[in-house]
Amino acid sequence: MIINRFLAHVGRYFQLLGTAIARPEKASMYYRETMRQMNDIGVGSLVIVVLIAVFIGAVTAIQFAYQLQDSFVPRYYIGYIVRDTTIIELAPTITCLVLAGKVGSNLAAEIGGMRQKEHIDAMEIMGVNTAAYLIMPKIIGALIMIPMLVAIAAFVSILGGYLATVPVGLISHSEYELGVRSYFIPYNITLMFIKSFVFAFILTSVPCYQGYYVKGGSIELGRASTNAVVFSDILILLFDYLIAVVFT
Amino acid sequence: MIRTENLIKAFGDTTVLKGITTEFYPGKTNLIIGRSGAGKTVLLKLLVGLHKPTDGCVWYGDTDFFSLDKKAVRAIRMEVGMLFQASALFDSMTVEENVRFPLDMFTNMTAKEKLMQVNSCLERVSLEGANKKYPSETSGGMQKRVGIARAIVLDPKYLFCDEPNSGLDPKTSIVIDELIKDITVEKNITTVINTHDMNSVMEVGDNIILLYKGEITWRGSKEDVLESDNEYLQDFIFASPFLQRLRARALGK
Fold first, then answer.
1. B184 φ, ψ (degrees, to nearest 5)
2. What is the pLDDT of residues A11-65, one digit of tens each?
3. In this structure, is residue A61 part of a structural domain?
4. Rg of the Cα trace of chain B?
5. Residue A11 lies in a domain
6. Does some domain include residue A60?
7. Which of A28, A119, A125 sits opposite B48 (nearest CB)?
8. Which domain holds residue A57?
9. Complex ipTM, two decimals?
10. Among A117, A121, A127, beta carbon nearest to B74
11. Left (φ > 0), alpha (ψ -120 to 50) or beta: where does B70 sit?
12. Is residue A188 part of a domain?
């Protein structure tokens, strides 16, 4: 029974995505909507992403410095570890988990609200492909903006690590800089962007699906919003693991 | 003209519509009436393709709607306007943007042409100058009129109205009824109204079907209502003792 329901959801999710990939009725309308979504998702999330990134970098640096106490490992390794952990794992994963909460719940509520207020029916009757018009601009907007946010998060995290260690004398400026410049593997940046693209797709398409098929009233809308965040988070962590296995 | 043929709709084990065969004529206000739960909204949603029938057909002219591919369905929908029970106006858009939405989406008109068309529709529904207001800044009656303006902005051949008087005071209801009736005649549109408002029935009912438990139990026009002995019809239209007395007086009983 549970497996049947799960498979039905998976089938309907891909069916919805199939319907959403269609030639736009009017490219300019889709362009305008995509710009709006890029602003909402990207600019609207910048502050929280920067805040979280600063603390991720700071905490990573301080905890690693703590572990290096009384050891023979050179202290410049702090910069090296902060750089690699943020680029490979923390910046894409933590940023996207947070965005799944902020953006995902918002998208599910927005589309679910439109379903409940018959806005989607109204568009359908006009002849609009609602799956395409309501979902594709959100996914495209996220695919453009979220990798940028992740790149900013990685940069700010490294800066956060610096601010948490250098001014308080845990490590010198030149040591941190040396660590950040050491053993750099450019492929890690590729890995970060692969993760951010995949996570961006998950954290928009799953909430859009949850919102698009919402039925009932405000309780169901709240439930859809919660499901959107929970399922997005689970899928992000699952794909984080799969990407790690496949690409490293 | 729209025609339905043995239209059946079931949700699980519950059959909501049990073989509806009827016609809706152009230039007339066609009413679907009945008590709550009779299947009016389901029938209307089947007519516009928001539900798929369990069995039966809906014909737009000579075209079987449910046998069409997506492109052809979209072409028919370009000829359809709909007024929703709660108006379904987009909250984040102004009145002008709401009415302009179908033009933005489906036409290559210039901004000036669109504005002229929007203003003409707003004028038609007596909402001149309301362009920049948001739906939340307008009354229920105004929202219905904006909904009508949006529904007619692409000059549809078919107009569907889901309980256009719901939530309105009697005077505003009459204004909305008259507006729909006038537009129907002016543009020779096939208008289908789903209502349980008896004033609407008596004012604009050119072609009425009464649904009862998913079946048509009576059909006629507003002129036939008073004289009909159909038990379900009388029970529906003249539900209150006051209206029953009025009817008796009108018939000289």
1. -60, -45
2. 999 999 999 988 888 889 999 999 999 999 999 999 999 999 999 999 999 999 9
3. yes
4. 19
5. no
6. yes
7. A125
8. 34-242
9. 0.85
10. A127
11. alpha
12. yes
